[in-house]
Write a structure and sequence with these properties.
27% of the residues lie in helices and 20% in strands. The chain has 8 helices and 10 strands. A hairpin with a 2-residue loop joins strand 1 and strand 2. Helix 6 crosses helix 7. The longest helix has 16 residues.
Amino acid sequence: MMKSSGDDIGSRADRTDGAGPALEVTHLDVSRGRTPVLHDLTLSVPRGAVLGLLGPSGCGKTTLMRTIVGVQRIDSDEVRVLGRPAGGTRLRGHIGYVTQQAAVYSDLSVRDNIAYFASLQGAPPGATPEAIAAVGLDGLNGRTVSSLSGGQAGRVSLAYAMVGDPEMLVLDEPTVGLDPVTREELWERFRALATAGHTLVVSSHVMDEATRCDLLALMRDGRLLGLWTPEELLARTGTDTPDQAFLALVRDGVADPGGTTGPATTADPATTGDRGDAPGRGRHADSRDTADPVGPSLPEEDDER
């Protein structure tokens, strides 16, 4: 996770202006050492949408997420988050980041962990129990993180990311290891956050979670196969499920020009969609401003590029 305190970062009172896309990635290339990892990625995501990053392990989802939060060096060209260059210091307080591995203090209780992070964020009274309740850990307030299961510890990390009420949540496989009931409750929470105007970027290799997203970025071998709504994906491939659709794209070698080399279709909260609370559709807006230097590095993930 990456959230900080201090006068040089964003705060709850220092919201971005709300104009333009939440995320703009333009012809992005990333390498790890001498190994190219991401290749010419272009996509745009409006505010208040849930973007699903889908693809097999090792396809580059985690690297893209690290780039979004500003802790991954890039080769070219740029990433803008909430209208600002990714990695800018004033942006960090606006983003909550959950890595695949729990990033909290194992010797502290659930309550003390979240209260500590809430104090760093200047969160209002009541934010700590609210965040804990949102991830279903009310009854474990006094337990140390070391005494929790892996899935429970992961939920503590999620509460930490949410307690500062960030405008964007970047969640790397947040439902791994969770039981079906907790997983369903978390997705309901994610939808409520998006409806309230927050933007979520959620990675998964579980294709049945695709239908819960407003917009899907399907990745393979560091490339974007395409950027579609769930309905557009199924219609394009003539399939009935996201699993079948992904296999069809891989089998046919399909790469959507809208997802890799040209304007990318987005879900646009300003228009009316047909998916209940989900935003509707719009078009990609290009931006070519110079990005600030990236922030400090986070530990590498073990099982994802």
